[in-house]
Amino acid sequence: MPPPVAASLAPAAPADLDRSCRWPVLVLGGLSAGWLVFAAVLGVLAAIKLHAPGMLANIEWLTYGRVQPAAWNALVFGFGALAGLALALWLMVRLSGVPLAGTGTILFGAAVWQVGLKLGVLGVLAGDSTGIEGLELPRYASPLLLAGYLLIAPWALVVFGRRQRRESYISQWYLVTALLVFPWCFASGYVLTSFLPLRGVLQAAAQAWYLQQLWVLWFGSLTLAALFYFLPKLTGAAVPSRSLALFGFWTFVAFGGLGGLTRYAGGPFPAWMLSLAVVGNVLTLFAIYGVGANLLPSLRAALSRLSGNVVLWFLGFSLLAWLTAGVLTALNSLATVRHLTHFTLVTPGLDQLAFLGGFGVAALGGLYVVVPCLLGRDWPSRFLATLHFGCAAGAVVLLAVAFLVGGLVHGAALNNTDVAFLTVAKRYLPFASTGTLAQLLWLVGSGAFAVNFLWLLGACARTICVPAARALVEPLPAEGKA
Amino acid sequence: MKHGPLLFLGVFAAFFASWVAGVLAPHLQIGGQSLVQIDDLGIQYPLDRTGEAKQGAQVYRAQGCHYCHTQQVLQEPLLSRLTLTDAGTNITDAVAALRKVRRDLDADAATELVRHPPQVILAHAGASATDQATRLLTNAGARVESTIANLGPDLRRGWGTRRTVSRDYLRDQPVFLGQIRLGPDLANLGARQTNTTWLLRKLYNARIDLPGSTMPRYPYLFTERRLRPGQAPSPDALALPSEFAPPAGIEIIPTREARQLVAYLLSLRSDALFYEVFPPPTDQCRDKTGRDHERPVRPNLVPRP
User: Fold this and answer.
1) Cα A229 vs. chain centroid, distance in angstroms?
2) A90, A139, A319, A328: which has the highest count of C-beta atoms within 10 A?
3) Across the interface, do B61 and A130 touch by the CB < 8 Å criterion?
């Protein structure tokens, strides 16, 4: 139901806006925190299995080929998508100055998504995976996710359509892109690989396209929406150039989605597909330049204010990680580099750097801002937040080192046919242990976040429930005296 | 940007264009590929798998073997090796031609080469260098033979005899191209490994035959069966060396899934030759390992017996 026209004319106060989206954002954020911890546990298991193949080998559900995709899906669709949607709703409401409509539908959508993803992850662990990396969710789960999404996301677009100022904000451009991209790439990916599968290697082409949209356009847009909102807000430095931002945005949208096939470079595909992907990846550097040139100065200006401002650490780190990942991805698509990195963990490492370091850290930073606004109460423990940042940043750096350096070592050994294969596999082992250390750090950080979150919710519940309970127990004083 | 619709349309257009380029156009180009009729063998390639092997592919999928194993063989651009097989009647002309092809040879070395065919003249040459050399030498009355010389690391590791092409995967659903090689490529496993017992042992515990292997164990694809006193061991039981063997009176029997998986593994081969599999010729003689650069072969001055 659209609100009355009069209501949408009067600019709403931030408190009213927050009240309108409190439940959807809190529920989505809370669910994403749960998935974050769950995915981190699975991630640790998967990482250990790479260097200790005997661990828990008797349990079919926990074999490497199942925990690995289960962890991935829990992280990407549990933590990533839900946190992204929570932030997207909140940012859209704030930036448009219009209260959120459709709260009930959104909550229902969150439940549908949650059920779908639980089924899906259990299905993968039970051996029902589709067998296509990144699109593993079984057929009985993936449609639920899409349905859940379609119940949630359109409301953000409705808010955008009703926005107060016709002139839109940079973050809004990226939000609109993200919101439009996801259903399309998700549907295309799943339909063309598991419902009406394309023939032969075309499935892999559809998968490569989907992964590119997912990483670059969906999570990339969400990252940039958060960065373009929070960084100027926190540092007090306005974005220097709107035209540069426009340039960055359109180059991002135009070229960001083209680079998928470099994952299958040299593979059984028509040669032009690879050339196009390389060109796309290299041209995306324009977008990276546009973002960097606009946001890095504000970060530099805020260097002095950095101490003690945990949220700013999160967002600054995310910006640096995202930019690094973008530059390295372009580099990694060049033939000479790819020859060395092909079939190693370098490519997944870059995905992880952009996803965990860029999106994940930005989304967490965003939640550190948003949740207190919604609950009207600050985080109970500064220490836990600082610990979270330290662990998350350390985990991302370690993981990047393990995957990138380890990948190069692995790639050099693979190309050197004088090295027997088992030796090749063993050269990666030290890096696999580093990866486990990184996953453990990430788990500790996620745990700190979850504890802080629960603590905050508990404190709020106490302030609401204790007086209410007391009122129930104590006789009403007014009656006797009247 | 004042115009919401413009934003929507722009994003939509960019997005649609990338979908057309990444998904639709490839589908239009190779989506209609048909099986290859190979007359010499009287088969349609790729061969259909047996029912057991098809079920095995589903075990492979469910166990997630493709997170460590690829099924694609890469090959570098075409390079050839040119061999002088016969110098012809006019030795002087042949020597002159050879010295045009191999400017590093002095007259004596060239004469020596020409006198004792067959001799490799060019080891890893691009297409136009090979063509030119062939022309020069045949004009001088000599005879040469060119063969494919480049392999690239995959072929040198014995993971295949040629690169894999899109037709190799026409019957696969899902396609297990794989992106990471924590284990060896399996595209041609069936061509290099035909021993069922060895494969079953590899699945039961890869460290039996290869100490230190990092491949996971799949013990749950096997059942333990207790032998009654005096009962003869089953012929299906896995023969295991003593340190991996179960306690006396218990034998390890592969489950149906393990057998299906092995049937699938044995069915893996993409080595049929047809027009599509030859890599495109090129003049670049690149091999980033630094081993296959076009380099003159040292003349073999020791005459063959």
Assistant:
1) 16
2) A90
3) yes
